[in-house]
Design goal:
Pfam family, one: Phi_1
Structural class: alpha/beta
Number of strands: 18
Organism: Panicum virgatum
Strand content: 15-25%
Shape: globular
Mean pLDDT: 85
Family: Belongs to the EXORDIUM family.
Subcellular location: Secreted, Extracellular space, Apoplast
Strand order of the largest sheet: 1-10-11-8-5-6
Protein name: Protein EXORDIUM
Length: 317
Amino acid sequence: MASRGFISSRALQMAAAALIVLSLARPSLCQQRRELELAEIPAGDQLTYHGGAVLSGDIPVSIVWYGMFSPEKKAIVVDFIESLTSKPASATPSVAQWWATIRKVYLSNAAAAGGDTRVLLASQAADEQYSLGKSLTLDQVFQLAAGAAPRKGALVLVLMDADVVVEGFGSVRCGLHGADAGAGYVYAWAGDAERQCPGQCAWPFARPSYGPKDKPLAAPNGAVGVDGMMVTLASMVAGAVTNPFRDAYYQGEKDAALEACTACAGVYGSGSYPGYAGDVLVDKATGGSYNAVGAGGHKYLLPAVYDAAKPGCSTLV
């Protein structure tokens, strides 16, 4: 069966919450794509469960590093993945607490079997020779994910360095998650936007390309491109596990869905509003802004999680 995909554009995260980005319909290697447009969310529409499968149990994660990533940049990503469930939280607020909200609000209510859901780093592969070139289509992103040979229930992260241009990156999307429904695995893509489109895909660590030109927040790990990528990646991981095949948790039309974190786009702390990330924490030593700490000591700015029980966006700070 063909893969299915969703998009997320940081350029639109500072727009009014009533605007959404239509997803790419089934981005396989042989199917046409739907054009992106803005649409209004129907009044009274809620992010609800539609009966489909979520990822549960042990979720093996494979990382595909496409291009050149320094050991420190890789460590930022790996610490995030391992901090979700594999290691105990070493500080508060933590990455593990963010994941606990997703698990409680979404996964525990929809999993076919009881028990915890753990995210486990299974493998890493580096493609430093840019085997598909430095200008990729979304079909090629899917190729890279499939090349990791994921098993059913797995999650593949395809990460691009700052030299790689992906179709629509920075103009209509900052990341994507999708799935091969036949094989039963999901994938998520995000890229380093520091040199290409920081105003769209590295906000709030870069000045926005439109709207008020407020001073950007300092990146929590001192890497604007990768710290910005982590914001997108966290949102895509949340969507991939809670709505992997477009029939689980979402709001609106199936092909124009808001999900666990994209429903709270641009919200990172209390008091947030379009163009303002909210009241987040600041590292006294580095000046970096964050709202979660990883078990390995890295800090992150993670997106808020929509909680229908409130209803509203649940932030860590």
